Amino acid sequence: MINNDNDRVVFFDIDGTLLDTSNFAETARKAAIGLMVDNGLPLDKDEAYGVLKTIIREKGSNYNKHFNILTQVVLGHEDPMLVALGMVTYHNVKMALLRPFAETIDTLIYLKSRGYRLAVISNGITIKQWEKLVRLNVYSFFDAVITSEEVGKEKPDNLIYDVALRKMRGNPEKSVMIGNKLKEDGLGAVNAGMSAILVNSDVTEEDREFIKKNKLDIKIIENIGDVDTIL
Amino acid sequence: MINNDNDRVVFFDIDGTLLDTSNFAETARKAAIGLMVDNGLPLDKDEAYGVLKTIIREKGSNYNKHFNILTQVVLGHEDPMLVALGMVTYHNVKMALLRPFAETIDTLIYLKSRGYRLAVISNGITIKQWEKLVRLNVYSFFDAVITSEEVGKEKPDNLIYDVALRKMRGNPEKSVMIGNKLKEDGLGAVNAGMSAILVNSDVTEEDREFIKKNKLDIKIIENIGDVDTIL
Protein backbone atom coordinates (compact mmCIF):
# COMPACT_ATOMS: atom_id res chain seq x y z
CA MET A 1 0.00 0.00 0.00
CA ILE A 2 2.71 2.45 1.01
CA ASN A 3 4.71 1.36 -2.04
CA ASN A 4 2.31 3.00 -4.52
CA ASP A 5 2.87 6.27 -2.73
CA ASN A 6 6.55 6.19 -2.09
CA ASP A 7 7.50 8.78 -4.68
CA ARG A 8 5.57 11.32 -2.59
CA VAL A 9 8.04 13.09 -0.39
CA VAL A 10 7.63 16.01 2.00
CA PHE A 11 10.87 17.88 2.51
CA PHE A 12 11.29 20.12 5.54
CA ASP A 13 13.54 22.97 6.45
CA ILE A 14 14.55 22.79 10.16
CA ASP A 15 15.23 26.16 11.83
CA GLY A 16 12.10 28.27 12.06
CA THR A 17 10.06 25.51 10.40
CA LEU A 18 10.16 22.37 12.57
CA LEU A 19 12.08 24.07 15.32
CA ASP A 20 11.11 27.23 17.15
CA THR A 21 14.25 29.35 16.89
CA SER A 22 12.68 32.74 17.55
CA ASN A 23 15.06 34.79 19.75
CA PHE A 24 16.80 31.56 20.50
CA ALA A 25 20.38 32.44 19.54
CA GLU A 26 19.98 35.99 20.82
CA THR A 27 18.84 34.84 24.27
CA ALA A 28 21.69 32.32 24.50
CA ARG A 29 24.30 34.85 23.33
CA LYS A 30 23.09 37.50 25.77
CA ALA A 31 23.24 35.02 28.66
CA ALA A 32 26.80 34.09 27.66
CA ILE A 33 27.87 37.73 27.37
CA GLY A 34 26.28 38.50 30.75
CA LEU A 35 28.39 35.89 32.53
CA MET A 36 31.56 36.84 30.62
CA VAL A 37 31.18 40.50 31.66
CA ASP A 38 30.35 39.50 35.25
CA ASN A 39 33.56 37.46 35.28
CA GLY A 40 35.87 40.17 34.06
CA LEU A 41 35.38 40.96 30.36
CA PRO A 42 35.97 44.73 30.61
CA LEU A 43 33.01 46.11 28.63
CA ASP A 44 29.43 46.79 29.54
CA LYS A 45 27.00 44.12 28.40
CA ASP A 46 25.45 46.05 25.51
CA GLU A 47 28.88 46.99 24.14
CA ALA A 48 30.10 43.40 24.43
CA TYR A 49 26.98 42.08 22.71
CA GLY A 50 27.53 44.62 19.92
CA VAL A 51 31.11 43.43 19.40
CA LEU A 52 29.93 39.81 19.37
CA LYS A 53 27.27 40.59 16.75
CA THR A 54 29.89 42.20 14.52
CA ILE A 55 32.09 39.10 14.84
CA ILE A 56 29.14 36.83 13.98
CA ARG A 57 28.32 38.98 10.96
CA GLU A 58 31.91 38.79 9.74
CA LYS A 59 32.55 35.10 10.42
CA GLY A 60 29.07 33.65 9.80
CA SER A 61 26.88 31.92 12.39
CA ASN A 62 28.28 28.42 11.75
CA TYR A 63 31.81 29.49 12.78
CA ASN A 64 32.60 28.07 16.22
CA LYS A 65 35.13 30.49 17.68
CA HIS A 66 33.08 33.67 18.15
CA PHE A 67 33.87 33.86 21.86
CA ASN A 68 37.58 33.24 21.31
CA ILE A 69 37.69 36.22 18.94
CA LEU A 70 35.62 38.34 21.31
CA THR A 71 38.23 37.97 24.06
CA GLN A 72 41.04 38.58 21.56
CA VAL A 73 39.44 41.78 20.30
CA VAL A 74 38.61 43.12 23.77
CA LEU A 75 41.68 41.97 25.73
CA GLY A 76 44.33 41.69 23.03
CA HIS A 77 44.71 37.97 23.82
CA GLU A 78 42.49 34.91 24.09
CA ASP A 79 41.18 34.29 27.62
CA PRO A 80 40.36 30.57 27.81
CA MET A 81 38.38 30.85 31.06
CA LEU A 82 36.06 33.49 29.62
CA VAL A 83 35.80 31.57 26.33
CA ALA A 84 34.83 28.39 28.19
CA LEU A 85 32.30 30.31 30.28
CA GLY A 86 30.75 31.84 27.17
CA MET A 87 30.63 28.55 25.28
CA VAL A 88 29.13 26.50 28.11
CA THR A 89 26.54 29.16 28.91
CA TYR A 90 25.57 29.61 25.25
CA HIS A 91 25.28 25.86 24.81
CA ASN A 92 23.27 25.29 27.99
CA VAL A 93 20.80 28.07 27.26
CA LYS A 94 20.37 26.97 23.65
CA MET A 95 19.72 23.37 24.70
CA ALA A 96 17.25 24.57 27.34
CA LEU A 97 15.32 26.50 24.67
CA LEU A 98 15.50 23.88 21.91
CA ARG A 99 11.97 22.78 21.17
CA PRO A 100 9.67 22.03 18.24
CA PHE A 101 6.67 24.20 17.49
CA ALA A 102 3.58 23.02 19.38
CA GLU A 103 2.11 21.20 16.37
CA THR A 104 5.32 19.90 14.78
CA ILE A 105 5.02 16.33 16.04
CA ASP A 106 1.30 16.03 15.24
CA THR A 107 2.03 17.23 11.72
CA LEU A 108 4.83 14.71 11.21
CA ILE A 109 2.57 11.90 12.45
CA TYR A 110 -0.23 13.11 10.17
CA LEU A 111 2.03 13.17 7.09
CA LYS A 112 3.35 9.66 7.80
CA SER A 113 -0.22 8.42 8.23
CA ARG A 114 -1.01 9.91 4.80
CA GLY A 115 1.81 7.83 3.28
CA TYR A 116 4.37 10.55 2.69
CA ARG A 117 8.04 9.88 3.19
CA LEU A 118 9.87 12.67 5.00
CA ALA A 119 13.29 14.25 4.59
CA VAL A 120 15.10 17.46 5.43
CA ILE A 121 16.75 19.92 3.05
CA SER A 122 18.92 22.33 4.98
CA ASN A 123 21.67 24.90 4.51
CA GLY A 124 24.09 23.66 7.13
CA ILE A 125 26.34 20.87 8.33
CA THR A 126 24.90 17.35 7.99
CA ILE A 127 25.75 15.99 11.43
CA LYS A 128 24.67 19.23 13.15
CA GLN A 129 21.27 19.03 11.47
CA TRP A 130 20.82 15.38 12.52
CA GLU A 131 21.84 16.46 16.02
CA LYS A 132 18.88 18.83 16.13
CA LEU A 133 16.51 16.06 15.01
CA VAL A 134 18.02 13.74 17.63
CA ARG A 135 17.73 16.31 20.41
CA LEU A 136 14.10 16.99 19.44
CA ASN A 137 13.55 13.24 19.34
CA VAL A 138 11.99 13.40 15.85
CA TYR A 139 14.83 11.69 13.95
CA SER A 140 12.82 8.50 13.38
CA PHE A 141 10.39 10.35 11.11
CA PHE A 142 13.06 11.24 8.56
CA ASP A 143 14.69 9.01 5.93
CA ALA A 144 17.38 11.51 4.94
CA VAL A 145 18.89 14.89 5.61
CA ILE A 146 20.28 16.63 2.54
CA THR A 147 22.54 19.58 3.34
CA SER A 148 24.49 22.28 1.57
CA GLU A 149 27.60 20.77 3.16
CA GLU A 150 26.97 17.50 1.34
CA VAL A 151 25.85 18.99 -1.97
CA GLY A 152 28.24 21.94 -2.16
CA LYS A 153 25.43 24.38 -3.00
CA GLU A 154 22.94 26.17 -0.75
CA LYS A 155 19.18 26.50 -1.12
CA PRO A 156 17.71 27.90 -3.38
CA ASP A 157 20.26 26.38 -5.79
CA ASN A 158 18.63 23.80 -8.03
CA LEU A 159 21.35 21.25 -7.35
CA ILE A 160 20.43 20.74 -3.70
CA TYR A 161 16.78 20.09 -4.66
CA ASP A 162 17.81 17.74 -7.46
CA VAL A 163 20.11 15.77 -5.19
CA ALA A 164 17.36 15.57 -2.56
CA LEU A 165 14.75 14.31 -5.04
CA ARG A 166 17.16 11.77 -6.49
CA LYS A 167 18.25 10.55 -3.05
CA MET A 168 14.64 10.08 -1.93
CA ARG A 169 13.49 8.82 -5.38
CA GLY A 170 10.79 11.51 -5.15
CA ASN A 171 8.50 12.55 -7.97
CA PRO A 172 8.80 16.36 -7.97
CA GLU A 173 5.18 16.77 -9.06
CA LYS A 174 3.97 14.82 -6.03
CA SER A 175 6.52 16.23 -3.60
CA VAL A 176 6.42 19.32 -1.42
CA MET A 177 8.95 21.57 0.33
CA ILE A 178 7.87 23.08 3.64
CA GLY A 179 9.99 25.96 4.89
CA ASN A 180 9.90 29.49 6.24
CA LYS A 181 11.80 31.44 3.54
CA LEU A 182 10.28 32.49 0.25
CA LYS A 183 13.52 32.48 -1.70
CA GLU A 184 15.38 29.49 -0.24
CA ASP A 185 12.43 27.20 0.35
CA GLY A 186 9.62 28.51 -1.87
CA LEU A 187 11.34 29.56 -5.11
CA GLY A 188 14.00 26.88 -4.78
CA ALA A 189 11.35 24.17 -4.62
CA VAL A 190 9.15 25.42 -7.49
CA ASN A 191 12.22 25.83 -9.69
CA ALA A 192 12.90 22.16 -9.05
CA GLY A 193 9.36 21.27 -10.18
CA MET A 194 7.91 20.79 -6.70
CA SER A 195 5.28 22.74 -4.83
CA ALA A 196 6.01 24.60 -1.61
CA ILE A 197 4.33 25.55 1.63
CA LEU A 198 5.61 28.47 3.68
CA VAL A 199 5.08 28.60 7.47
CA ASN A 200 6.15 31.31 9.93
CA SER A 201 7.33 33.29 6.95
CA ASP A 202 7.59 37.03 6.72
CA VAL A 203 6.29 37.25 3.14
CA THR A 204 5.05 40.74 2.27
CA GLU A 205 1.96 41.79 0.32
CA GLU A 206 4.29 42.27 -2.67
CA ASP A 207 5.60 38.72 -2.29
CA ARG A 208 2.02 37.42 -2.35
CA GLU A 209 1.33 39.45 -5.50
CA PHE A 210 4.50 38.06 -7.08
CA ILE A 211 3.47 34.48 -6.29
CA LYS A 212 -0.04 35.10 -7.66
CA LYS A 213 1.06 36.89 -10.83
CA ASN A 214 3.58 34.17 -11.69
CA LYS A 215 1.14 31.40 -10.70
CA LEU A 216 3.76 29.82 -8.45
CA ASP A 217 2.63 26.73 -6.54
CA ILE A 218 3.52 28.22 -3.17
CA LYS A 219 0.95 28.20 -0.38
CA ILE A 220 1.28 30.26 2.77
CA ILE A 221 0.01 29.07 6.14
CA GLU A 222 0.29 30.57 9.60
CA ASN A 223 1.09 27.46 11.54
CA ILE A 224 2.71 24.09 10.81
CA GLY A 225 -0.47 22.49 12.19
CA ASP A 226 -2.35 23.85 9.15
CA VAL A 227 -0.42 21.57 6.79
CA ASP A 228 -3.41 19.20 7.00
CA THR A 229 -5.56 21.75 5.16
CA ILE A 230 -3.31 21.27 2.10
CA LEU A 231 -1.78 17.76 2.16
CA MET B 1 48.21 39.38 54.83
CA ILE B 2 47.59 37.25 51.76
CA ASN B 3 50.53 38.99 50.07
CA ASN B 4 53.13 37.34 52.31
CA ASP B 5 51.80 34.00 51.22
CA ASN B 6 51.25 34.51 47.57
CA ASP B 7 54.16 32.41 46.39
CA ARG B 8 52.36 29.41 47.91
CA VAL B 9 50.47 27.70 45.19
CA VAL B 10 48.49 24.49 45.15
CA PHE B 11 48.27 22.99 41.66
CA PHE B 12 45.57 20.47 40.85
CA ASP B 13 45.07 17.84 38.23
CA ILE B 14 41.37 17.68 37.13
CA ASP B 15 40.18 14.23 35.96
CA GLY B 16 40.16 11.73 38.81
CA THR B 17 41.43 14.38 41.24
CA LEU B 18 38.85 17.21 41.45
CA LEU B 19 36.39 15.43 39.24
CA ASP B 20 34.96 11.96 39.73
CA THR B 21 35.57 10.32 36.36
CA SER B 22 35.34 6.69 37.44
CA ASN B 23 33.47 4.72 34.75
CA PHE B 24 32.32 8.03 33.42
CA ALA B 25 33.46 7.76 29.81
CA GLU B 26 32.64 4.05 29.71
CA THR B 27 29.05 4.59 30.85
CA ALA B 28 28.55 7.41 28.34
CA ARG B 29 30.07 5.40 25.48
CA LYS B 30 27.97 2.33 26.25
CA ALA B 31 24.80 4.43 26.31
CA ALA B 32 25.75 5.93 22.93
CA ILE B 33 26.52 2.53 21.42
CA GLY B 34 23.25 1.15 22.78
CA LEU B 35 21.18 3.75 20.94
CA MET B 36 23.26 3.46 17.76
CA VAL B 37 22.69 -0.30 17.65
CA ASP B 38 18.98 0.12 18.47
CA ASN B 39 18.75 2.52 15.53
CA GLY B 40 20.37 0.32 12.96
CA LEU B 41 24.11 -0.07 13.48
CA PRO B 42 24.37 -3.73 12.42
CA LEU B 43 26.44 -5.22 15.25
CA ASP B 44 25.56 -6.46 18.67
CA LYS B 45 26.29 -4.00 21.47
CA ASP B 46 29.37 -5.75 22.86
CA GLU B 47 30.93 -6.05 19.40
CA ALA B 48 30.20 -2.41 18.62
CA TYR B 49 31.69 -1.30 21.94
CA GLY B 50 34.78 -3.37 21.18
CA VAL B 51 35.21 -1.67 17.80
CA LEU B 52 34.75 1.74 19.43
CA LYS B 53 37.40 0.95 22.06
CA THR B 54 39.86 -0.02 19.33
CA ILE B 55 39.19 3.29 17.54
CA ILE B 56 39.70 5.24 20.76
CA ARG B 57 42.95 3.40 21.43
CA GLU B 58 44.21 4.21 17.94
CA LYS B 59 43.07 7.83 17.74
CA GLY B 60 43.43 8.89 21.38
CA SER B 61 40.61 9.98 23.68
CA ASN B 62 40.83 13.68 22.74
CA TYR B 63 40.02 12.94 19.08
CA ASN B 64 36.43 14.01 18.36
CA LYS B 65 35.35 11.79 15.48
CA HIS B 66 35.25 8.33 17.11
CA PHE B 67 31.59 7.79 16.16
CA ASN B 68 32.16 8.93 12.58
CA ILE B 69 34.88 6.32 12.19
CA LEU B 70 32.77 3.66 13.90
CA THR B 71 30.05 4.03 11.25
CA GLN B 72 32.66 4.10 8.47
CA VAL B 73 34.27 0.91 9.72
CA VAL B 74 31.00 -0.95 10.23
CA LEU B 75 28.96 0.33 7.27
CA GLY B 76 31.66 1.28 4.78
CA HIS B 77 30.43 4.89 4.83
CA GLU B 78 29.71 7.57 7.41
CA ASP B 79 26.10 7.58 8.65
CA PRO B 80 25.42 11.11 9.92
CA MET B 81 22.20 10.20 11.73
CA LEU B 82 23.92 7.47 13.76
CA VAL B 83 26.92 9.73 14.37
CA ALA B 84 24.65 12.51 15.66
CA LEU B 85 22.76 10.04 17.85
CA GLY B 86 26.03 8.74 19.32
CA MET B 87 27.47 12.19 19.92
CA VAL B 88 24.36 13.65 21.55
CA THR B 89 23.88 10.60 23.76
CA TYR B 90 27.54 10.49 24.81
CA HIS B 91 27.50 14.20 25.58
CA ASN B 92 24.21 14.11 27.52
CA VAL B 93 25.24 11.14 29.66
CA LYS B 94 28.68 12.62 30.34
CA MET B 95 27.16 15.92 31.40
CA ALA B 96 24.65 14.10 33.61
CA LEU B 97 27.49 12.29 35.38
CA LEU B 98 29.90 15.24 35.63
CA ARG B 99 30.41 15.94 39.30
CA PRO B 100 33.17 16.75 41.77
CA PHE B 101 34.16 14.32 44.52
CA ALA B 102 32.06 14.87 47.65
CA GLU B 103 34.79 16.84 49.46
CA THR B 104 36.25 18.73 46.49
CA ILE B 105 34.51 22.05 47.18
CA ASP B 106 35.21 21.96 50.93
CA THR B 107 38.87 21.32 50.19
CA LEU B 108 39.10 24.24 47.73
CA ILE B 109 37.48 26.55 50.28
CA TYR B 110 39.84 25.28 52.99
CA LEU B 111 42.94 25.90 50.85
CA LYS B 112 41.79 29.43 49.95
CA SER B 113 41.15 30.13 53.64
CA ARG B 114 44.73 29.01 54.34
CA GLY B 115 46.02 31.62 51.88
CA TYR B 116 47.01 29.33 49.02
CA ARG B 117 46.50 30.41 45.45
CA LEU B 118 45.11 27.67 43.23
CA ALA B 119 45.78 26.61 39.65
CA VAL B 120 45.40 23.59 37.43
CA ILE B 121 48.12 21.67 35.58
CA SER B 122 46.55 19.35 33.04
CA ASN B 123 47.41 17.24 30.02
CA GLY B 124 44.70 18.45 27.68
CA ILE B 125 43.18 21.32 25.75
CA THR B 126 43.04 24.64 27.63
CA ILE B 127 39.46 25.65 26.84
CA LYS B 128 38.16 22.10 27.43
CA GLN B 129 39.74 22.08 30.89
CA TRP B 130 38.23 25.48 31.76
CA GLU B 131 34.90 24.10 30.48
CA LYS B 132 35.03 21.37 33.12
CA LEU B 133 35.74 23.94 35.85
CA VAL B 134 32.87 26.08 34.55
CA ARG B 135 30.45 23.15 34.42
CA LEU B 136 31.43 22.13 37.97
CA ASN B 137 31.03 25.76 38.99
CA VAL B 138 34.48 25.85 40.63
CA TYR B 139 36.21 28.14 38.12
CA SER B 140 36.31 31.09 40.52
CA PHE B 141 38.76 29.24 42.79
CA PHE B 142 41.45 29.04 40.11
CA ASP B 143 43.79 31.77 38.87
CA ALA B 144 45.15 29.81 35.93
CA VAL B 145 44.96 26.57 33.98
CA ILE B 146 48.26 25.43 32.50
CA THR B 147 47.89 22.73 29.87
CA SER B 148 50.03 20.56 27.66
CA GLU B 149 48.32 22.24 24.70
CA GLU B 150 49.68 25.59 25.81
CA VAL B 151 53.15 24.40 26.85
CA GLY B 152 53.74 21.83 24.12
CA LYS B 153 54.85 19.18 26.64
CA GLU B 154 52.80 16.83 28.80
CA LYS B 155 53.15 16.05 32.50
CA PRO B 156 55.53 14.78 33.85
CA ASP B 157 57.78 16.90 31.59
CA ASN B 158 59.62 19.51 33.61
CA LEU B 159 58.68 22.29 31.21
CA ILE B 160 54.97 22.20 32.06
CA TYR B 161 55.77 22.49 35.78
CA ASP B 162 58.27 25.30 35.16
CA VAL B 163 55.80 27.26 33.04
CA ALA B 164 53.11 26.75 35.70
CA LEU B 165 55.36 27.96 38.54
CA ARG B 166 56.50 30.95 36.52
CA LYS B 167 52.97 31.87 35.46
CA MET B 168 51.74 31.71 39.08
CA ARG B 169 54.95 33.24 40.48
CA GLY B 170 55.05 30.25 42.81
CA ASN B 171 57.93 29.25 45.05
CA PRO B 172 58.43 25.55 44.30
CA GLU B 173 59.49 24.80 47.87
CA LYS B 174 56.20 26.19 49.17
CA SER B 175 54.02 24.82 46.40
CA VAL B 176 52.26 21.49 46.02
CA MET B 177 50.87 19.41 43.19
CA ILE B 178 47.75 17.36 43.94
CA GLY B 179 46.93 14.63 41.44
CA ASN B 180 46.06 10.97 41.05
CA LYS B 181 49.00 9.66 39.02
CA LEU B 182 52.39 8.83 40.49
CA LYS B 183 54.38 9.52 37.36
CA GLU B 184 52.59 12.50 35.84
CA ASP B 185 51.64 14.30 39.04
CA GLY B 186 53.96 12.92 41.72
CA LEU B 187 57.33 12.51 40.01
CA GLY B 188 56.72 15.48 37.70
CA ALA B 189 56.16 17.78 40.65
CA VAL B 190 59.10 16.61 42.77
CA ASN B 191 61.42 16.87 39.77
CA ALA B 192 60.33 20.52 39.53
CA GLY B 193 61.26 21.06 43.19
CA MET B 194 57.72 20.92 44.57
CA SER B 195 56.06 18.43 46.84
CA ALA B 196 53.13 16.29 45.78
CA ILE B 197 50.00 14.71 47.22
CA LEU B 198 48.36 11.74 45.51
CA VAL B 199 44.63 11.06 45.88
CA ASN B 200 42.55 8.23 44.39
CA SER B 201 45.78 6.80 43.11
CA ASP B 202 46.51 3.20 42.38
CA VAL B 203 50.05 3.26 43.79
CA THR B 204 51.33 -0.20 44.61
CA GLU B 205 53.34 -1.38 47.57
CA GLU B 206 56.42 -1.19 45.32
CA ASP B 207 55.61 2.43 44.46
CA ARG B 208 55.43 3.24 48.16
CA GLU B 209 58.82 1.56 48.71
CA PHE B 210 60.27 3.53 45.79
CA ILE B 211 58.99 6.83 47.24
CA LYS B 212 60.37 5.96 50.68
CA LYS B 213 63.76 4.72 49.46
CA ASN B 214 64.30 7.83 47.36
CA LYS B 215 62.92 10.12 50.10
CA LEU B 216 60.54 11.72 47.61
CA ASP B 217 58.23 14.37 49.06
CA ILE B 218 55.09 12.58 47.87
CA LYS B 219 52.27 11.93 50.30
CA ILE B 220 49.42 9.55 49.63
CA ILE B 221 45.89 10.13 50.91
CA GLU B 222 42.66 8.24 50.32
CA ASN B 223 40.36 11.17 49.84
CA ILE B 224 40.68 14.76 48.69
CA GLY B 225 39.04 15.76 51.98
CA ASP B 226 42.20 14.57 53.79
CA VAL B 227 44.29 17.35 52.25
CA ASP B 228 43.70 19.29 55.49
CA THR B 229 45.80 16.73 57.37
CA ILE B 230 48.83 17.88 55.33
CA LEU B 231 48.35 21.52 54.25
TrEMBL record, chains A, B:
Keyword set includes Amino-acid biosynthesis: no
Protein name listed in UniProt: Glyceraldehyde 3-phosphate phosphatase
Record-stated family: Belongs to the HAD-like hydrolase superfamily.
One GO molecular-function entry: phosphatase activity
Domain of life: Archaea
UniProt cross-references to InterPro entries, sorted A to Z: HAD-like_hydrolase, HAD-like_sf, HAD-SF_hydro_IA, HAD-SF_hydro_IA_CTE7, HAD_2, HAD_sf
Cofactor names: Mg(2+)
Function: Catalyzes the dephosphorylation of D,L-glyceraldehyde 3-phosphate in vitro.
Entry keyword annotation includes Transcription regulation: no
Gene3D superfamilies assigned to the protein according to its UniProt record, in alphabetical order: 1.10.150.520, HAD superfamily/HAD-like
Annotated source species: Methanobrevibacter gottschalkii DSM 11977
Keywords: Hydrolase, Magnesium, Metal-binding
GO biological process annotation, one example: small molecule metabolic process
Pfam families the record matches: HAD_2
